[in-house]
Amino acid sequence: MTTQAISQQLAQHSRASFATLIRLLGDFDLAEEALQEACMAALQQWPEQGIPANPRAWLVSCGRFKIIDSLRRRSHFEQHLLPQLSELELQSQTSNPWDDPDIADDSLRLIFVCCHPALSQEAQLALTLREVCGLSTEQIAKALLLKAPTLAQRIVRAKNKIRDAGIPYEVPERGQLQQRLDSVLQVIYLVFNEGYGAAFNDNYICRSLTGEAIRLCRWLHTLLPKPDSEVMGLLGLMLLQDARSGARLDADGELVLLENQDRELWSQEQIREGVDWTTRALSSGPAGFYSLQAAIAAVHAEADNYQETDWLQIVGLYEVLYSLHPGPVVALNRAVALAMAHGPDAGLPLIDELITQGELSEYHLVFAARAELLRRQQAYSAAANDFRRALQLCHQPSEQRFLQTRLAECEKNN
Q1: Residue 93 scores a pLDDT above 60
Q2: How many Cα neighbours within 13 Å face the side chain of 96?
Q3: Is 96 helix (H, G, I), strand (E, B) or coil?
Q4: Positive or negative, the Cα torsion across 314, 194, 230, 234?
Q5: How far is Cα 202 from Cα 197, in angstroms, rounded to an integer?
Q6: Burial class (CB in 10 A: 0-12, 13-18, 19+), 111
Q7: Which residues lie closer than 8 Å to 204 by C-beta, 6 or more apart?
Q8: Among 167, 141, 163, which Cα is nearest to 152's?
Q9: Is 255 helix (H, G, I), strand (E, B) or coil?
Q10: For the stretch 359-371, what's the b/e string if a residue is b when 16 or more beta carbons lie within 10 angstroms of its beta carbon?
């Protein structure tokens, strides 16, 4: 049995095994220790004994008994461990991971625990990346542009909150499922956006988050008791956005706007799959937040070139989206779509209104959008002012360089 084959099996089954170990051991840290011990044992035993018929159950059983042995040794010096040890020993005599009816739902339970609304969104994101996706603290910190100790403290606080608040390790009841599912989808999309935006930082670990989010959404779709239109919509949206990744930066790592992207570099396979998921989402229930965004992405993806983009259809979709989910960012995107369909004069007043309202005062894209429309009107002095403001608020290197180039053009033409 090759080391590569064993490593593939461990990668495939480790996170699901971890989810079951959390349920059995009742503790994130103990489950992490158990999984590490089980994986080490697998690397020692499987080359000679072969990969077991049920690798996940083997890892769970091995990990649980490794922890029981550890607690037995430690309980001689730490008496407070005795009740926990007794409970685990009794449990190990009465339950068998090879024949456990709850094992199929453990991964879904873990997702809902990590995305519990009692936790802050930052904590949900960090905990999901660490415990569900299995990324290291250093990887997550690099992806989220945080220091590793800061990220580690955030994860510890989240685990303590789960313990102290008695957050149940369970799938919500049907009446609560949709509300809780919304939190899960928000976190998955946050994972995706962390990776999608990080592409501009030329950071491989960050870019891999887009694939992790897509994988997580696929997994969620298979775990739920029945198909959910917004899960399918989010999956379609992420596939359609990710399909353009190969064209978003040029050979020098500079940002390429959608209108200038080489569509030959777009992944047609992902576009076809993304459109299929979007179609299924829209046909299986009322259009939701992610399904409508996926529909907008599909209009872009199916246009042969930028000039043939159906901006009127995009405007209509944004109108529906805004009526269901009013918010400043959706309003900004609707204003830009109106400007593309009917000219800058149609979008600028709406953007001015958003800036006056102040909700996007620290959002660099509102000023970049206004500057771009002013540039198209050849109002170079006003455009330069907005490009300067956008530069002050922007933190991504490639976007900064793009904005600086636009600013220089406006200053030259002024």
Answers
A1: no
A2: 3
A3: coil
A4: positive
A5: 10
A6: buried
A7: none
A8: 141
A9: strand
A10: ebeebbbbbbbbb
Residue type, 232: M
Q: What's the CA gap between 211 and 24, in Å, rounded? A: 30
What tens digit of pLDDT does each residue of 215-246 get?
889 988 988 888 899 999 999 999 999 999 88
Q: Which is nearest to 379 in space by CA: 333, 339, 344?
A: 344
For the segment 307-326, the average pLDDT, to the nearest whole number, is 95
Would you call 133 helix, strand, or coil by DSSP? coil
pLDDT of residue 200: 43
Q: Which residues lie below 8 Å from residue 15, measured CB to CB, with a gap of 6+? A: 107, 132, 133, 134
Cα distance between residue 235 and residue 218, in whole Å? 7
189, 126 Cβ separation under 8 angstroms: no
Are 31 and 21 in contact by the 8 Å Cβ rule? The answer is yes
- The separation between CA 400 and the C-alpha centre of its own chain, rounded to angstroms, equals 24
Using alpha carbons, select from 55, 195, 57, 178 the residue that is nearest to residue 125: 195
Residues paired with 360 in a beta bridge: none
Question: How many CB atoms sit inside 10 A of residue 129's CB?
Answer: 29
β-bridge mates for residue 249, sequence order: 255
> Helix H segments across 26-120?
28-49, 55-75, 82-94, 106-114
Q: Contact, 219 vs 185, CB < 8 A?
A: no
Cα separation, 188 vs 129, in Å, equals 9
Residue 300 tokens read as 């872009």
**For 165-188, what is each residue's pLDDT tens digit?**
888 888 787 777 777 888 889 889
What SS3 class is residue 249?
Answer: strand
Q: Which amino acid is at 363?
A: Y
- Cα separation, 372 vs 296, in Å, equals 21
The dihedrals phi and psi of 255, each to the nearest 5 degrees, come to -65, 135
Q: Which two tokens stand for residue 214?
A: 């897509």
- The enclosing H or E element of 372 equals helix 364-376
Q: What is the largest CA-CA distance in the chain?
A: 81
The pTM score is 0.79
CA distance 82 to 84: 5
Residues 288 and 283: their CA atoms lie apart, in Å, by 11
